Amino acid sequence: MTVYKIAIAFPTGPCFGVDRALKLTREVLKYKKPVYMLHPIIHNPRVVSELERQGVVVSPPENVPEGGTVILSAHGTPQEIKSLLKDKGADVIDAVCPLVEHLHRKAREMIDEGRFLIIVADPHHQETRALVSHLPEGKYAFYKDIGSIPQGQPLGVIFQTTYEYAKVPDILKDIYSLSDDIRIVNTICPATRGRQGVIDKVGHKYDFIVVVGGKNSANTRRLYEKALRYADAIWIEQAKDINVESLGYHRNILIVGGASTPIEHLIEVYLHFKKVIQ
């Protein structure tokens, strides 16, 4: 196999919110075990498995014991689950990303201004479920249901933090037809924009892009979808997932990490390729 160039895209490594959540978890594990999580604190199965070996238990809220220590996800947690944990007397540590909290504040702020809120997001994503639990019924709709959005009244627009930034202009064209009074808050995470942007900037220089990150990660899935627009691409969680024989005649390889992918996972993939081509 002859390869002329192997590169790791930057920015890379865990985003601010993921890094903060992991530091909180590891700090708590120093003095308390077990520590309960209602679902993975970040969307990276390898990292979550490591935390489980250190004393984390992933469990539904009803199975958390009275007074148990619970760390809430970086993606946010629905209000009804927080209420259930409070009734159990749980020791709750909320590792929600500050940028997700910012999203919640801006959503409520625009509704309080009398605006009907348009949410550009995957309705089934954990972050979105947490968001709508804070909002009054009948005051919001998802962009995918644009036909149900009232016309001619003040509107507000927010985005899932991991939404693909390149799609925003076309979405706004649709929304602009609904009202002449629209307030838009760009709640897409800068780390997401940066990772997506680097593929747009240099993706055409590579004929093979390797996206590294959890298969349950929304931002990593969007990186993979974007990579496919520029080159052949694969989405893996670790180096052993690579079938080198399938690389064929690709000569220039770019390695891209999701926002929940540790730098060491990317280096592992890089060294794997270096070993194969030597």
By CATH reckoning, the class of the largest domain would read Alpha Beta
Report the radius of gyration as a whole number of Å: 21 Å
Tell me what the CATH architecture of the largest domain is: 3-Layer(aba) Sandwich
CATH superfamily heading of the largest domain = 4-hydroxy-3-methylbut-2-enyl diphosphate reductase, catalytic domain
What is the H/E order?
EHEHEEHEHEHEEHEHEHEEH
Annotation, overall tally of beta strands: 12
Largest sheet features: 4 strands, parallel
Q: What count of domains describes the coordinates?
A: 3
CATH topology of the largest domain: Cobalt-precorrin-4 Transmethylase, domain 1
Helix content: 25-40%
What is the mean pLDDT?
91
Q: Ranges with pLDDT <50 over ≥5 residues?
A: none
Question: Which descriptor suits the 3D outline?
Answer: flat
Secondary structure class reads: alpha/beta
Characterization of this structure:
By secondary structure, the protein is of the alpha/beta class. It has 3 domains: 5-13 and 191-277, Cobalt-precorrin-4 Transmethylase, domain 1; 16-97, Rossmann fold (3-Layer(aba) Sandwich), CATH 3.40.50.11270; 99-188, 4-hydroxy-3-methylbut-2-enyl diphosphate reductase, catalytic domain (Cobalt-precorrin-4 Transmethylase, domain 1), CATH 3.40.1010. Helices cover 37% and strands 18% of the residues. It is built from 9 helices and 12 strands. It has helices at residues 16-29, 45-54, 79-87, 98-112, 126-132, 168-176, 190-202, 218-227, 263-277, and strands spanning 5-8, 35-37, 56-58, 69-72, 91-94, 116-120, 140-142, 155-159, 182-184, 208-212, 232-236, 252-257. The strands form 4 sheets. It has a 4-stranded parallel beta sheet, sandwiched between helices. Helix 2 links the parallel strand 2 and strand 3 (56-58). Helix 7 (190-202) packs parallel to helix 8. The longest helix has 15 residues, at 98-112. The N and C termini lie close together (9 Å).
